[in-house]
């Protein structure tokens, strides 16, 4: 900490230190010593250095009627720029003298709480631990311990000992942040997706009744998903398959045929509502598949039904015999009525899977024009190309944010957006983005390492910068050597 007491110590440090360094004789009782000898200290992120030393004080170094001050002083070049809180040692008679003054003259000793009583008839060691705050713009210097008696500032009884050197190589780090350069390659933009609708049909019927159950809502949701695929002028449908899932109970052939017809009904409803052309309708295929009995077992287990084991045992035993054989034995179980009434689905599932190709953009003018209205039609490379075409940093920031909205794993966008955040003074956002991208991006790993080095988080910074060979990386690695 910095000294906050006056009594001449801070003001005298410069004079005493210059005097001692200019040829003052060694103390007649011998010099102090310090362990470790001349510690090398590195400032932390708060411009603080930590000292943990022990001084060896020779026997009779100061008289029994004296108080010894060991005052750390920071010297930069030929100037003392800071004096710090002293280590205060009281010899036996001096201690008694202070006690008498406090009683007889109501004297207030400013060092009473920190003064340490010592027996200075023999050599002794005293520990010194403190955290010293460096002045602004000081990145290197030397710390001397100035020994003086009584704080009087006279040369007699003065000694000087170099106890630490400060060198902050991190102050020499340069802002050589790395930008990830996007590579623009025109490639097909094939996209796919899937969904399902839970529909209700009359028994053994397959005609679509929008008013039955939640059919209308389910089909409207299916249409909302597929409309951008089927009607988008920038998209071309490659394939859409609609599959009816056949119920487990009842004859398998009947159920699969029924499920296929129900899938066809869903297709026809979709074609009519979206007014698809005959060529588009031909790209929609229908199929069916058996549901099997495992969904029933899963529903029973979710409900904690103890009869689930019995049903699953039959499914496993007759796994190669088909749904009809399994159903024969499941119907013989005492729990069949419960299974039929509770766990067989009333809704029929219609699944759909689709793939489509979005138009590729090849000209810069087309990209800039369509970006304003249809960023969803771009692939990652096209959006990153737009980031190189916009004119302002604010526009570039918005493009990178758009890239990450559609492509959250884009390492290029994350790295370069982090650089913008850093320039805006938002280092925490920058760090979060670099951490997100560091597994994929060499630039993000370097930038994260450099940021952490500047924040003096050296263990992680060294690991991240180890593969790199530039001046910043060498500076950081040298600190750990």
Give the topology.
Elements: H1 9-21, E1 33-35, E2 39-41, E3 48-57, E4 67-76, E5 79-83, E6 87-90, H2 92-104, E7 116-117, E8 124-133, E9 140-149, E10 159-167, E11 189-199, H3 215-231, E12 235-246, H4 252-274, H5 278-282, E13 284-290, H6 294-302, H7 308-317, H8 323-330, H9 336-343, E14 348-358, H10 364-371, H11 380-389, H12 393-406, H13 411-423, H14 427-437, H15 442-454, H16 458-465, H17 471-480
Parallel strand pairs: 2-10, 6-7, 12-13
Antiparallel strand pairs: 1-3, 3-8, 4-5, 4-6, 4-9, 9-10, 11-14, 12-14
Helix pairs in contact: 3-4, 6-7, 7-8, 10-11, 11-12, 12-13, 13-14, 14-15, 15-16, 16-17
What features would you describe in this structure?
The chain has 481 residues and is an alpha+beta fold. The chain folds into 3 domains: 9-167, Immunoglobulin-like (Sandwich), CATH 2.60.40; 190-357, 2-Layer Sandwich (60s Ribosomal Protein L30, Chain: A); 360-480, Tetratricopeptide repeat domain (Serine Threonine Protein Phosphatase 5, Tetratricopeptide repeat, Alpha Horseshoe), CATH 1.25.40. The chain is built from 17 helices and 14 strands. The protein has helices spanning 9-21, 92-104, 215-231, 252-274, 278-282, 294-302, 308-317, 323-330, 336-343, 364-371, 380-389, 393-406, 411-423, 427-437, 442-454, 458-465, 471-480; strands spanning 33-35, 39-41, 48-57, 67-76, 79-83, 87-90, 116-117, 124-133, 140-149, 159-167, 189-199, 235-246, 284-290, 348-358. Strands 2, 4, 5, 6, 7, 9 and 10 form a 7-stranded mixed sheet that branches. Strands 11-14-12-13 form a 4-stranded mixed sheet. Strands 1-3-8 form a 3-stranded antiparallel sheet, with no helix packed on it. Helix 3 crosses helix 4 (252-274), helix 12 (393-406) runs antiparallel to helix 13 (411-423) and helix 15 (442-454) packs antiparallel against helix 16 (458-465). Mean pLDDT is 87; it is low at 1-10 and 151-155.
């Amino acid at each position: 900490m910095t000294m906050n007491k006056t009594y001449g110590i801070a003001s005298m440090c410069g004079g005493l230190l210059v005097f001692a360094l200019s040829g003052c004789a060694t103390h007649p009782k011998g010099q102090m010593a310090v362990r470790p000898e001349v510690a090398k200290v590195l400032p932390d992120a708060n411009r603080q250095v930590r000292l943990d030393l022990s001084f060896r004080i020779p026997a009779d170094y100061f008289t029994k009627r004296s108080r010894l001050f060991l005052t750390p002083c920071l010297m930069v070049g030929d100037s003392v720029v800071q004096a710090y809180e002293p280590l205060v040692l009281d010899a036996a008679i001096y201690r008694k003298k202070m006690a008498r003054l406090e009683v007889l003259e109501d004297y207030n000793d400013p060092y009473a709480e920190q003064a340490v009583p010592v027996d200075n008839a023999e050599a002794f060691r005293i520990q010194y631990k403190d955290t010293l705050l460096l002045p602004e713009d000081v990145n290197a210097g030397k710390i001397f311990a100035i020994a003086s008696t009584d704080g009087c500032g006279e040369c007699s009884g003065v000694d000087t000992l170099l106890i630490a050197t400060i060198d902050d190589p991190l102050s020499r780090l340069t802002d050589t942040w790395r930008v990830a350069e996007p590579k623009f390659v025109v490639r097909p933009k094939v996209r796919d997706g899937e969904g399902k609708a839970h529909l209700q049909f009359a028994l053994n019927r397959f005609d679509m009744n929008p008013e039955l159950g939640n059919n209308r809502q389910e089909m409207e949701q299916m249409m909302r998903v597929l409309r951008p695929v089927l009607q988008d002028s920038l998209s071309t449908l490659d394939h859409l398959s609609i599959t009816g899932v056949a119920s487990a109970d009842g004859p398998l052939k009947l159920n699969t045929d029924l499920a296929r017809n129900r899938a066809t009904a869903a297709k026809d409803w979709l074609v009519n509502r979206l007014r698809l052309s005959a060529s588009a309708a031909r790209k929609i295929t229908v199929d069916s598949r058996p549901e099997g009995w495992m969904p029933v077992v899963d529903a029973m287990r979710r409900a904690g039904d103890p009869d689930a084991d019995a049903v699953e045992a039959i499914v496993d035993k007759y796994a190669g015999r088909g749904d009809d054989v399994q159903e024969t034995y499941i119907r013989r179980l005492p729990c069949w009525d419960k299974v039929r009434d509770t766990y067989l689905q009333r809704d029929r599932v219609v699944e759909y899977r689709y793939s489509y190709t979005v138009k590729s953009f090849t000209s810069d003018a087309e990209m800039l024009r369509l970006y304003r209205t249809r960023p969803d039609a771009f692939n990652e490379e096209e959006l990153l190309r737009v980031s190189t075409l916009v004119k302002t940093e604010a526009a570039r920031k918005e493009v990178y944010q758009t890239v990450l909205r559609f492509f959250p794993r884009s390492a290029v966008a994350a790295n370069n957006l982090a650089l913008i955040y850093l320039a805006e003074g938002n280092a925490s956002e920058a760090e979060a983005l670099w951490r997100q991208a560091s597994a994929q991006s060499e630039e993000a790993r370097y930038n994260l390492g450099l940021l952490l080095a500047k924040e003096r988080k050296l263990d992680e910074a060294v690991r991240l910068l180890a593969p790199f060979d530039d001046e910043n990386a060498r500076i950081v690695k040298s600190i750990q050597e």
